[in-house]
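Open question from group meeting: does this chain pack into something compact, or does most of it stay loose? Before anyone orders reagents, we agreed to write out a predicted structure and look at it together. Recording both the input and the output here so the notebook holds the full record.
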Amino acid sequence: YFDECGFILPSLDSEAMGAVVFAVDSSGSIDRELLTEFKTEMQSALDDLKPSKLVEIVCDTRITVHREYSRGDKILPDAPGGGGTSFVPVFDKLADEQRAPKCVVYLTDGDGLLPEKHPDFPVLWILYNTQKTMPFGESILCG
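Structure tokens returned:
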């Protein structure tokens, strides 16, 4: 802004945040009600935080869904899975990306195989129905 000169110019600053990755645990220990809650949290983040994009990765022992959403999109309700739980495929996939994510939010009950190497990007674990915390990243206990 150049208010003193009477000019208002576009700014390079933006109110929007960068891309956010949401990883969804779709293993057998996650029931339909909890999956619905996961999807509701994702929709709230997309609507309220207004990230440049929201990347969804659904995984049990393998990645079953990988999709991107933009502002105004509706989060799809499906989350195929039902097997065991491994967090490794999600972190392996993100490690293979050319650009590391700004942040990964992992929605889970926390019971699963963890990667041997901790990622170089921030991880926020939203843990449901457990008192356990994760060995890396930040853990928030819910439910």
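Observations to bring back to the group:
The first strand starts at residue 20 and ends at 25.
Confidence is low (pLDDT under 50) at residues 5-13.
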